[in-house]
Amino acid sequence: MSKLFPDKEYYSISEVCEITGLKSHVLRYWESQFKILSPTKNRAGNRAYRKNDIQVVQLIKHLLYTEMYTIEGAQRKLNQLKQMGKKGPETLPASDKNREALQEIYRELLNLKELIGG
Asked: Are the C-beta atoms of residues 55 and 22 closer than 8 Å to each other?
């Protein structure tokens, strides 16, 4: 884990806010909108996020802020990922890596095409 993502079992909402760059009210709202996001509560009633919960938050953030999905669209996308038998948060990095690899292969093919005069 990185310095911003310390290796421990539970994270407070303020720690998750620091890790993800989101405000606490956004996290609480997303909990009401996304069934997949449901951190446990400790004895004091405070939210206790696990690493998987943080990965879900990061996926939702990516869908909403980067991919520009609506809440409903992000809910559908998460359901599709779940139906495909994949864990949503773990598919995101692989998808980005695959996209980058394909773009690099495409650039190399274009260079080869120019070299052979095509």
From this structure: no
Q: How many folded domains does the chain comprise?
A: 1
Mean pLDDT for 16-31 is: 97
The per-residue pLDDT for range 38-87, each reduced to its tens digit, is 999 999 999 999 998 998 999 999 999 999 999 999 999 888 887 776 55
Q: CATH number of the domain that 64 lies in? A: 1.10.1660.10
Residue with tokens 């509560």: 41
Instruction: Return the DSSP state at 85.
Output: T
**CA–CA distance from 56 to each of 44, 52, 61, 116 (Å)?**
24, 6, 8, 47
Cα 75 to Cα 58: distance, rounded to the nearest angstrom: 14
